[in-house]
């Protein structure tokens, strides 16, 4: 729990206590409870709920059921301890109001030989009563003043407010030993070089100032999660060996106006006393979001916080050594003012690593793991396009966990591959018992694999398996191409044909009536690709028009021709037509390939049913013995 949460909890408890005291006062039962808990430990019933009339009390007296009487308020109230058959013969404390003028009561008590005691209302009690009557309103008024002060004055109180709500929540390290150095970071060389330069700036400022260079005030790291932004910040702190403040943007976001701003001011005040130093703000988008963009016209608190950040970064005009490092995965929502030169002068994009980057990162994380010789980090990197540094670290960690589970001291290819399969495809299930369905799935998967390897523009087969994973009953993995962002028309068609290959194989081998629901996911993918080819990439007869944008929003409605709705409908029809044409064409191709290669398909299915998994090389060996007719699309 950090300091702020603690403060809030304390504040909450404080209020609860106030309310509690209030309720107890109103209930008027304070007196009774005190009595039961101090004097009579054997009482088990909540006495405040038991009352008795004076008349009944007299009856109790006569019956000899009363054990003890305590008189309060000048004998106007009494707590009677009694036990009777109607009370289940258990001693109970009962409150009795005594009418004014019942002067014989004491006489009676003596007569029946009852143990009694009178508790006078002393001087101190009056004082306490008055004080406690005043206490509640005072607490309320006090807390109202407290909150008003918070919301109005925090911006000028510089964090010296009650309970320190305006203090900076940043963690501070005088000489940080984060355990991370630049050699632990791979695959993001550009960002690393930039940071190495800043370290050298901090270590030998003269070298730079001599030629008139100014130290940058802020560096903004932008990139998807898990790409090593925090890692870079830790490394720079370690290597520069200067004080390091680290904080998450969300820690400045508070309910009360001015607190975030006060915290920013406090952070920069402290930082400027300790120059040169580094201030790392993670998730800076939490404070740096574009102003006035929130729902309902913006959020005053956040805007004040952001304004304060902007002012502070302007404040140290000649940078004396406070370097602000911000990290975000949403540079697009940051306020333009934050990105203006003079604040975050440098923006570094930390992207997903490419193949070489992935090899580098895998090497870094393999350092402390006993990998066997058969593990190829290069192959693993080939299999994992789109993986971030964190994903790769996680992959090797999973492999190590699997090795431990299998009681091994080293990690082999098997564990590494299994870990990759798990992360990409989901956790493996048990294979199907049903012979007929298993055979059908085998044909489906081999259908994908054969079609994929016949097409020149398709990725290579990595592995075929009948072990279910995630939602799929069987899987065919292809080694994905490095650059998934730039695909040609024939690559897209090859994907559609290959994806249809599974279902087509079922159709050809088992006949139309036996086709299963198993291909629904395939069909969805196929339709998606075909639709995008038509509406986004201009790869159909409709021509090079963007009919939908990235978010699948239709853009064509705004083309001003004819009446809008007529136009939209015709275009929508044409889109559907073109999508169908593409898919039909691809289905035909897939059928041709399956029919042409039926012999090898049967053979591979047999092997697959036997071993349940075939890796890419085994598959290619089998295929090599038969001529597969290569197809161009
Ligand atoms: P981000 O801050 O970008 O979300 P992190 O820096 O927190 O990501 O990365 C999480 C973990 O992933 C790191 O602790 C590290 O183990 C691993 N990692 C990420 N990127 C890299 C990289 N480029 N080189 C080595 N390890 C990395
Ligand atoms: Zn399939």
From TrEMBL:
<dbReference type="Pfam" id="PF00004">
    <property type="entry name" value="AAA"/>
</dbReference>
<keyword id="KW-0547">Nucleotide-binding</keyword>
<feature type="binding site">
    <location>
        <begin position="223"/>
        <end position="230"/>
    </location>
    <ligand>
        <name>ATP</name>
    </ligand>
</feature>
<feature type="transmembrane region" description="Helical">
    <location>
        <begin position="126"/>
        <end position="148"/>
    </location>
</feature>
<dbReference type="InterPro" id="IPR011546">
    <property type="entry name" value="Pept_M41_FtsH_extracell"/>
</dbReference>
<keyword id="KW-0812">Transmembrane</keyword>
<dbReference type="GO" id="GO:0016887">
    <property type="term" value="F:ATP hydrolysis activity"/>
</dbReference>
<feature type="active site">
    <location>
        <position position="445"/>
    </location>
</feature>
<dbReference type="Pfam" id="PF06480">
    <property type="entry name" value="FtsH_ext"/>
</dbReference>
<keyword id="KW-0934">Plastid</keyword>
<dbReference type="InterPro" id="IPR041569">
    <property type="entry name" value="AAA_lid_3"/>
</dbReference>
<dbReference type="InterPro" id="IPR000642">
    <property type="entry name" value="Peptidase_M41"/>
</dbReference>
<keyword id="KW-0479">Metal-binding</keyword>
<dbReference type="GO" id="GO:0004176">
    <property type="term" value="F:ATP-dependent peptidase activity"/>
</dbReference>
<dbReference type="InterPro" id="IPR003960">
    <property type="entry name" value="ATPase_AAA_CS"/>
</dbReference>
<keyword id="KW-0150">Chloroplast</keyword>
<dbReference type="GO" id="GO:0004222">
    <property type="term" value="F:metalloendopeptidase activity"/>
</dbReference>
<dbReference type="InterPro" id="IPR037219">
    <property type="entry name" value="Peptidase_M41-like"/>
</dbReference>
<keyword id="KW-0472">Membrane</keyword>
<dbReference type="GO" id="GO:0008270">
    <property type="term" value="F:zinc ion binding"/>
</dbReference>
<comment type="subunit">
    <text>Homohexamer.</text>
</comment>
<dbReference type="InterPro" id="IPR027417">
    <property type="entry name" value="P-loop_NTPase"/>
</dbReference>
<dbReference type="InterPro" id="IPR003959">
    <property type="entry name" value="ATPase_AAA_core"/>
</dbReference>
<dbReference type="GO" id="GO:0010304">
    <property type="term" value="P:PSII associated light-harvesting complex II catabolic process"/>
</dbReference>
<dbReference type="GO" id="GO:0009535">
    <property type="term" value="C:chloroplast thylakoid membrane"/>
</dbReference>
<keyword id="KW-0482">Metalloprotease</keyword>
<feature type="binding site">
    <location>
        <position position="448"/>
    </location>
    <ligand>
        <name>Zn(2+)</name>
    </ligand>
</feature>
<feature type="domain" description="AAA+ ATPase">
    <location>
        <begin position="215"/>
        <end position="354"/>
    </location>
</feature>
<keyword id="KW-0067">ATP-binding</keyword>
<protein>
    <recommendedName>
        <fullName>ATP-dependent zinc metalloprotease FtsH</fullName>
        <ecNumber>3.4.24.-</ecNumber>
    </recommendedName>
</protein>
<keyword id="KW-0378">Hydrolase</keyword>
<comment type="similarity">
    <text>In the N-terminal section; belongs to the AAA ATPase family.</text>
</comment>
<dbReference type="Pfam" id="PF17862">
    <property type="entry name" value="AAA_lid_3"/>
</dbReference>
<dbReference type="GO" id="GO:0006508">
    <property type="term" value="P:proteolysis"/>
</dbReference>
<dbReference type="GO" id="GO:0005524">
    <property type="term" value="F:ATP binding"/>
</dbReference>
<dbReference type="Pfam" id="PF01434">
    <property type="entry name" value="Peptidase_M41"/>
</dbReference>
<feature type="transmembrane region" description="Helical">
    <location>
        <begin position="6"/>
        <end position="23"/>
    </location>
</feature>
<comment type="function">
    <text>Acts as a processive, ATP-dependent zinc metallopeptidase.</text>
</comment>
<dbReference type="InterPro" id="IPR003593">
    <property type="entry name" value="AAA+_ATPase"/>
</dbReference>
<keyword id="KW-0862">Zinc</keyword>
<dbReference type="InterPro" id="IPR005936">
    <property type="entry name" value="FtsH"/>
</dbReference>
<feature type="binding site">
    <location>
        <position position="522"/>
    </location>
    <ligand>
        <name>Zn(2+)</name>
    </ligand>
</feature>
């Amino acid at each position: 729990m950090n300091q702020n949460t603690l403060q809030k909890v304390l504040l909450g408890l404080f209020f609860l206590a106030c309310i509690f005291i209030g309720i107890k006062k109103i209930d008027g039962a304070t007196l009774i409870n005190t009595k039961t808990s101090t004097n009579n430990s054997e009482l088990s019933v909540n006495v405040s709920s038991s009352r008795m009339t004076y008349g009944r009390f007299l009856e109790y007296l006569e019956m000899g059921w009363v054990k003890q009487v305590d008189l309060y308020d000048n004998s106007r109230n009494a707590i009677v301890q009694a036990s009777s058959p109607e009370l289940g013969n258990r001693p109970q404390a009962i409150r009795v109001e005594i009418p004014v003028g019942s002067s014989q009561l004491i006489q009676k008590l003596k007569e029946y030989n009852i143990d009694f005691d009178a508790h006078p209302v002393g001087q101190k009690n009056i004082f306490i009563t008055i004080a406690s009557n005043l206490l509640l309103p005072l607490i309320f008024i006090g807390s109202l003043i407290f909150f008003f002060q918070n919301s109005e004055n925090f911006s000028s109180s510089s964090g010296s407010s009650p309970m320190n709500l305006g203090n900076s929540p940043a963690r501070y390290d005088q000489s940080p030993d984060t355990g991370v150095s630049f050699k632990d970071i791979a695959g993001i060389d550009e960002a690393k070089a930039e940071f190495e330069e800043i370290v050298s700036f901090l270590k030998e400022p003269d070298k730079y100032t001599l030629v008139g260079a100014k130290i940058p005030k802020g560096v903004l790291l932008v990139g998807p999660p898990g790409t090593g932004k925090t890692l870079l910040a830790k490394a720079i702190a370690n290597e520069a060996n200067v004080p390091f403040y680290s904080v998450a943007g969300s820690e400045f976001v508070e309910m009360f106006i001015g607190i975030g701003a006060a915290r920013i001011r406090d952070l920069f005040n402290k930082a400027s006393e300790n120059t040169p130093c580094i201030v790392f703000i993670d998730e800076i988008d939490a404070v740096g979001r574009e102003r006035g963009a929130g729902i309902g016209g913006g959020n005053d608190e956040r805007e004040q916080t952001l304004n304060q950040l902007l002012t502070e970064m302007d404040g140290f005009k000649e940078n004396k050594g406070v370097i602000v490092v911000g990290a975000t995965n949403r540079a697009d929502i940051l306020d333009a003012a934050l990105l203006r030169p003079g604040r975050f002068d440098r923006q570094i994009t930390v992207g997903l690593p490419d193949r070489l980057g992935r090899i580098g990162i895998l090497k870094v994380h393999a350092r402390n793991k006993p990998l066997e010789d058969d593990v190829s980090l290069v192959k693993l990197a080939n299999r994992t396009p789109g993986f971030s540094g964190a994903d790769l670290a996680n992959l090797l960690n999973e492999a190590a966990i699997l090795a431990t589970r299998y009681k091994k001291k080293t990690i082999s290819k098997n564990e590494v591959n299994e870990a990759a399969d798990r992360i990409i495809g989901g956790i493996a299930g048990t294979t199907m018992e049903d012979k007929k369905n298993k055979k059908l799935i085998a044909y489906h998967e081999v259908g994908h694999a054969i079609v994929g390897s016949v097409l020149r523009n398709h990725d290579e087969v990595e592995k075929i398996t009948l072990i279910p994973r995630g939602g799929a009953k069987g899987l065919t993995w292809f080694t994905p191409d490095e650059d998934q962002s730039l695909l040609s028309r024939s690559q897209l068609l090859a994907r559609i044909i290959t994806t249809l290959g599974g279902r087509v194989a079922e159709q050809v081998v088992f006949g139309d009536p036996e086709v299963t629901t198993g291909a629904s996911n395939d069909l969805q993918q196929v339709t998606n690709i075909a639709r995008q080819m038509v509406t986004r990439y201009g790869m159909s007869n409709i021509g090079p028009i963007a009919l939908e944008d990235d978010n699948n929003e239709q853009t064509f409605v705004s083309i001003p021709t004819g009446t809008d709705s007529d136009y939209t409908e015709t275009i929508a029809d044409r889109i559907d037509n073109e999508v169908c044409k593409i898919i039909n064409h691809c289905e035909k191709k897939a059928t041709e390939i399956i029919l042409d290669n039926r012999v090898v398909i049967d053979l591979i299915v047999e092997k697959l049913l036997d071993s349940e998994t075939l890796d890419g090389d085994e598959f290619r060996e089998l295929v090599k013995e038969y001529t597969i007719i290569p197809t161009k699309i």
